[in-house]
Design a protein that fits this description.
- This protein has 20 helices and 14 strands.
- The chain is an alpha+beta fold.
- It has 5 domains: 38 residues; 45 residues, no CATH class; 171 residues, 2-Layer Sandwich (Nucleotidyltransferase, domain 5), CATH 3.30.420.10; 70 residues, no CATH class; 82 residues, no CATH class.
- It has a 5-stranded mixed sheet, sandwiched between helices. A 4-stranded antiparallel sheet has the order 8-11-12-13, with no helix packed on it.
- Strand 1 and strand 2 form a beta hairpin.
- The radius of gyration is 38 Å and the shape is extended.
- The mean pLDDT is 85.
Length: 499
């Protein structure tokens, strides 16, 4: 807390002239007693107060200082036991406070400002920005941040995890945004970059080495406990956190990345460049571009490849969700090739299935052709399929079917009726109606239908109209193209010409 000079003068006068105590000064001047003590200590004048009282620990202080000089990290509890064996009878609480005052502190280390040449170096790191909720899944929101060391040009891209594939996609996005590649990229000791390290011996991730070889740059890890070597990216992450992400509103991940790209090209590029006496990051980046390496003609392919096993049902589990495959592939080992938008299931060079990628949790993504083929093969699969859809959309349906089975009801009829109600009213309304019917101990679709109609009438909505027509009605309403009557006109004209 900074106080005005006149208040400091009053504190010094009250203490040294009027002989007021620190607590009295703090109360009358209306500042904290620690502030009064700090002002008195910084004034460089001797304090007038009670003399130092002898303490039980005073005879043991030389032994404590000598022991701490040899073992600076020795715990206070162990030191307390040692001095107790030597006759100390004091408690542990005050002893800990004394040890904290006498424990040696490591000397502060000074660092040199590291300067880099244009186009020479970039620094890369991950930043954690909380979580993003997608349906039932809570995904970590990770920010890939890359900064050019000379111009301080920032590239920012958000991902839903920090896997190797997204790590490389972040590099590709940065190279594309800069339309160039730096000669050296500094990494912290990330698992995506460094697999093992023993002193100066470093084992890089082989995928990262192949990627670096493709783009012809040198991957270089920073030294252990040397945060100053990658201070540019650390400050860039803090700058992103305070100036971009704070109080930021976004609809989804694509919207957040679109805003991040606009921010990097706009406000982040227009800030003052720390390494230049006068000028912006945009101007420094324009001067640095000619010194960067050019991009290769073909980009590095980044695809997530995972081996999966198909169980009894024709689905593979990938990233917390199930994706359908042809039923002929059950009990087999396949491979998933995934990118941010699509999930492909392959068997060698053959692509068996292609689905949109889901970032939800417990979702089932299906190709209707896979299900139709299975239904055609097994007639009973139709009823089981409807039950599975019901329990997936409305989990309370399972309880209703169990109670109906206990009363010897026809589950096929109940399932068909509930499927129609699900189609007409939706999963949320059906769930509320089933719960109310179960509370009344009436596990029957008629009770569920009555609840749905009552809720609909309370909202003054029109009754749902099914758009699915029977086959004979669809055939009857088929458009018929009338035959042209010109043929009959020509025949009629020909009959009149005969003698």
């Amino acid at each position: 807390m900074t106080i005005p000079p006149d208040i400091e003068a009053q504190i010094l006068r009250y203490y040294h002239v009027e002989k007021w105590r620190i607590g009295t000064i703090a109360k009358q001047v209306r500042v904290h007693r620690d502030t009064v003590a700090r002002v008195l200590g910084q004034a460089g004048l001797p304090r007038l107060g009670r003399p130092h009282r002898p303490s039980k620990i005073d005879p043991y202080l030389p032994f404590i200082r000598e022991t701490l000089a040899k073992f600076p990290t020795l715990t206070a509890s162990r030191l307390h036991g040692m001095v107790r064996e030597r006759g100390y009878v004091g408690g542990q609480s005050q002893f800990r406070h004394v040890i904290a005052c006498h424990r040696p502190r490591p000397p502060a280390e000074a660092f040199l400002r590291l300067a880099t040449l244009p186009g020479e170096q970039a620094q890369v790191d991950w930043g954690h920005f909380g979580q993003m909720v997608i349906g039932r899944a809570h995904r970590p929101l990770m920010a890939f941040v890359a900064v050019l060391s000379y111009s301080r040009q920032i590239f920012l891209r958000f991902f839903l995890d920090a896997r190797m594939e997204n790590f490389l996609r972040g590099h590709l996005g940065a190279f594309t945004a800069w339309d160039a590649v730096p000669r050296v990229i500094l990494y912290d000791n990330l698992k995506s970059a460094v697999l093992e390290r023993h002193g100066d011996a470093i084992r890089f991730h082989p995928t990262l080495l192949a990627f670096a070889g493709h783009y012809r740059y040198e991957p270089r890890p920073v030294a252990v406990a040397r945060g100053n070597e990658k201070g540019r990216v650390e400050r860039a992450i803090r700058f992103v956190r305070d100036n971009f992400f704070a109080a930021r509103k976004y609809a989804d991940l694509d919207d957040l990345n679109a805003q991040a790209d606009a921010w990097c090209r706009g406000p982040a590029a227009d800030r003052r460049c720390p390494q230049q006496d006068a000028g912006t990051v945009r101007e420094a980046f324009a001067a640095e571009v000619p010194r960067l390496l050019s991009l290769p003609d073909n980009p590095y392919p980044v695809v997530e490849q995972v081996a999966v096993a198909v169980g009894k049902t024709p689905y593979v589990r990938f990233d917390k969700n199930d994706y359908s495959v042809p039923h002929t592939q059950v009990r087999r080992s396949l491979t998933v090739l995934a990118d941010p938008d699509r999930v492909r299931v392959v068997d060698g060079p053959q692509v068996l299935a292609s689905h949109r990628r889901s970032y939800d949790k417990g979702e089932r993504i299906e190709d209707p052709a896979h299900i139709r083929a299975l239904v055609e093969q097994k007639g009973k699969a139709r009823h089981l399929r409807a039950t599975d859809q019901l329990t997936t959309a409305v989990p309370a349906t399972q309880t209703l079917l169990i109670r109906a089975a206990e009363r010897d009801k026809n589950l096929g009829t109940i399932t068909a009726a509930l499927m129609r109600l699900l189609r007409d009213y939706g999963a949320a309304e059906l769930r509320a109606a089933i719960i109310e019917a179960l509370d009344r101990n009436v596990p029957h679709p008629n009770a569920v239908r009555l609840v749905l109609e009552r809720r609909r009438e309370e909202r003054r909505q029109a009754p749902p109209v099914s758009v699915i027509l029977p086959a004979h009605v669809r055939d009857r309403d088929a458009a018929v193209r009338p035959h042209s009557l010109e043929t009959y006109d020509r025949l009629k004209g020909a009959s009149h010409e005969e003698p």
